[in-house]
Design brief:
Layout lengths: L1 H9 L14 E4 L5 E5 H8 L28 H16 L5 H4 E2 L11
Antiparallel strand pairs: 1-2, 2-3
The structure holds heme C (4 copies).
Length: 112
């Protein structure tokens, strides 16, 4: 019994159930075309929320800090860095058109 408890205590956090909360999909308009980020599918394939939510899920969206708190790297830059770094390692899309859909330029914020 004691051993079983010890084993449970030693289980790493990512193995414990994490609920897939938050929106299913995020759309980011840009002058390179819309980026559709499937949050739900990424939660399933990545597993550990903290890989992206590095300050904790309870801190909310990245844009609560990036692009708001002076001196922190910009939202666009940290998203690019986070997304593309993992894609290099895990064979996700790394070319512009793998994320940006140039067909959806009309919904973009070109000119802003
Ligand atoms: C892995 C996905 C991904 C790849 C690959 C990618 N982007 Fe992005 N890009 C994004 C996301 C997500 C945003 C939205 C960030 C935001 O809204 O703050 C974005 C935003 C941008 C923006 C800023 C928005 C704007 O209109 O100014 C530019 C410029 C941009 N990307 C250019 C590129 C170029 C050029 C490439 C190829 C060299 C590229 N991106 C590759 C995901 C990607
Ligand atoms: C691959 C990266 C990634 C992973 C993994 C990830 N998220 Fe997110 N999450 C994001 C991004 C990007 C946003 C949008 C933030 C922004 O645009 O500033 C977001 C937003 C959210 C939000 C705010 C959404 C809303 O609807 O307002 C919640 C809550 C959230 N995620 C929970 C989670 C939880 C819980 C997990 C783990 C089960 C998780 N996320 C895993 C990248 C990720
Ligand atoms: C509570 C505030 C906060 C939130 C929310 C937050 N960050 Fe950060 N982020 C920081 C701070 C602070 C740093 C450290 C900046 C430094 O080292 O110069 C940082 C650094 C980063 C870096 C490293 C940048 C670099 O150039 O080395 C990346 C990538 C990043 N954040 C991505 C994200 C993503 C993606 C999200 C949302 C899923 C997010 N952050 C949410 C505060 C936050
Ligand atoms: C920790 C790893 C990781 C991070 C961070 C990550 N991705 Fe991915 N992404 C993947 C993997 C793995 C795939 C799937 C590769 C495959 O199976 O084809 C993928 C696939 C994709 C695809 C192809 C369509 C799909 O959903 O299958 C898009 C678009 C995409 N990611 C966008 C993004 C954007 C935008 C971000 C940043 C906000 C991001 N990803 C962050 C791992 C990641």
């Amino acid at each position: 019994m004691f051993r079983l408890l010890l084993l449970l205590l030693l289980l790493p956090a990512p193995l414990m159930a994490q609920e897939n909360t938050g929106r299913e999909v995020f759309d980011y308009a840009s002058r390179w075309g819309m980026v559709t980020f499937n949050h739900r599918e990424h939660q399933q394939r990545v597993g550990d929320c903290l890989i992206c939510h590095h300050e904790g899920v309870e801190m909310g969206v990245c844009s609560n800090c990036h692009g708001v708190i002076p001196g922190l790297p910009q939202h666009k830059d940290v998203l690019h860095k986070k997304c593309i770094n993992c894609h290099w390692k895990k064979s996700g899309p790394t070319d512009c058109a793998g994320c940006h859909d140039p067909e959806r330029l009309d919904e973009s914020v070109y000119g802003d």
